[in-house]
Amino acid sequence: MQNDIILKNPYIFLGSRLKRLSDRFLTDAAKIHHDLGFEMFPSQSVLLAQIGDAGEISVAQLAEILGQSQPAITRNLNNLRDMGLIETVTVKADSRVRMVSLTHDGQGLLAGLRGKIWPRVDGVIRDLLLEVAPDFCSNLNKIEAALDDQSFDTRFKTLLEKQAKLTPQDVEIIEYSDEYAGDFYKINIDWISENFVVEDIDKYVLSHPNEAILDKGGIILLARLSNGEIVGTCALMKMDAQNGEEPEYEFTKLGVSRHYRGLKIGEKLIYAAFARAREMGLKSLFLLTNHQQRSSIHLYEKLGFVHSGEIMDKYGHEYERADVAMKWVAE
Length: 331
Hints:
Elements: H1 5-8, H2 14-35, H3 42-54, E1 57-58, H4 59-66, H5 70-82, E2 86-91, E3 94-102, H6 104-132, H7 136-149, H8 152-164, E4 171-175, H9 181-195, H10 200-207, H11 209-212, E5 219-225, E6 230-238, E7 249-256, H12 265-279, E8 284-289, H13 294-302, E9 306-307, H14 309-315, E10 324-329
Antiparallel strand pairs: 1-3, 2-3, 4-5, 5-6, 6-7, 8-10, 9-10
């Protein structure tokens, strides 16, 4: 699974990841049913259980409770009816409403599932989750409740509207102060963990920005919206002088909150860093990145950074993920 695009993009393809996990469970569950003599699919077992629990229930109610479409529910019900496990009755007061209940054979089959399979399935899955993800089910409940409150589609449209209203004038570049320590940490940790393993040097610099950057003569810049929200960061970090040379400065910790990417906030931060570098009398800056960050590398090239083997040899060891080094020279 080294090149698994779903694992590389866990948030973008979360639905596909959950579907894949669901398919693994359902495939094994179908085999378990078959091996123990129950010739039915797990999706049909869920319907059987819901009907048995209700005693009598309409197709519309089944669709609402199970979160499935009525056509999908109807297809499975037709299969259960053909197997002689359910019966349907049309409501006299409204011929459009069909009530579903278990037949005698359906009740017997449900009793068999509850006695022979489900307690063991429950135990196996409980053991698995207690071992690797004890809060999995409670977190699923929270996710579903949050989506009931506001759907994914609504959240996406709200984000688009929010971004559409954002203008360059709404983004101000400011100097770091301690009140923004949490923002500096979170924006960068989120970005790094999305793409790479967070390294010890990352943890130290982000947790101790004064000691690691400011007290040594570096600077931290922040992108702040007109409402006060911090949405981006970058820093110029002074390196220790080598061989009697003038100390060099690393352009580092460029990060933008995921909701505000694609709005040229990173570009605005870079230009601000260039301006501050000139004010500080710096002749150049360097950066370290990874070849996978193609869009970032393209931006750096566009703004004047050039690839440098010398910088890679000199500072590439600072980060395990670093395999690209670039240098900017002040005009």
